[in-house]
Design a protein that fits this description.
single chain, 132 residues, alpha+beta, six-stranded antiparallel beta sheet, 40% helix, 27% strand
Length: 132
Amino acid sequence: MESWLIVLVIAGGWYLWQRSKNQEKATAANERLEKDKRLYEHIKTGMREYHWRERDQPLWHAKHGERVFETAHLIAFHLDHFVESRVGFYFKDLDEYGMYSFFAGNDDDFIESYYRTDRDFQKEGVLLAGDD
């Protein structure tokens, strides 16, 4: 009888340990999703500002990495790419860098992508949030 009690205590302890590990993973995933969602929304807002300003002057003439405009909330940069149109952003309130990319395919096909990136716009961490 005593050996069954020991096995039951060990199994219960293992179950609780596994459950806490799963809870930690779920918490980390939720935090990442919320962070990605905030950055995604900021990039969309930045692109609205970009398109609004582009009506008055063509922003795509800038050199790679050149600042094209700055507001109280963000700085936008032109990014060269061999296939895509890209815009980089620094969001002051988030202290994060984001990148928007647009690829035009055949006919009316196009792909928009949103990334978390570094200050040099070299990394492309796909965001987990979107309109999907």
